[in-house]
Amino acid sequence: MVRKEVVKHFIDYFLDKKSPLKIYKDRPQIGSSYANPNFGMLLKTIESVIEFYLTHKIELSKEEKVVLMNFNFVEKLIHDGYETIAAKIVKIICPNNLHASEKIAIVLMKGISKSNYENIQPYLDVVHEFVLISD
């Protein structure tokens, strides 16, 4: 059995100082501006837990929804090269949820508007996945 609300802890740890929850205020700094840590397995775990929640109709908590639809979370996923995981999370949280879809659309549009020509492709990949779920 998956412990409920583990997602908020993982995302809070991933976002560090940019987290809206700030659960781990005093955690040691991992990596630097030159060397980002590899959070791939942590993010795949988040993806799996969310899929489990949805498969078993377990409601996400308010805090989990806040961090999942947070601009900093989606932006950091895409910026750090985890756009495929961002796209899967979008596929998981957006179907039949107008509020989540609107928030994710705003996040993606803000990211696209801030990006230059070379950095826009990951955002477009997520937008492509976002459009596919609404068909």
Concise overview:
With 135 residues, the protein is mostly helical.
Count of individual domains: 1
Beta-strand content estimate? under 5%
Based on CA atoms alone, the radius of gyration comes out at: 15 Å
| CA(first)-CA(last) distance | 33 Å
Shape category = globular
**Mean pLDDT rating:** 82
* E-strand count: 0
Please report the number of helical segments. 7
Describe the structure.
The chain is mainly α. It has one domain (6-134). 62% of the residues lie in helices and 0% in strands. It is built from seven helices and no strands. It is globular and about 40 Å long.
Features:
135 residues, mainly alpha, globular
Write the layout of secondary structure elements.
Elements: H1 6-15, H2 40-55, H3 62-68, H4 71-79, H5 83-93, H6 98-114, H7 121-134
Helix pairs in contact: 1-2, 1-3, 2-5, 4-5, 5-7, 6-7
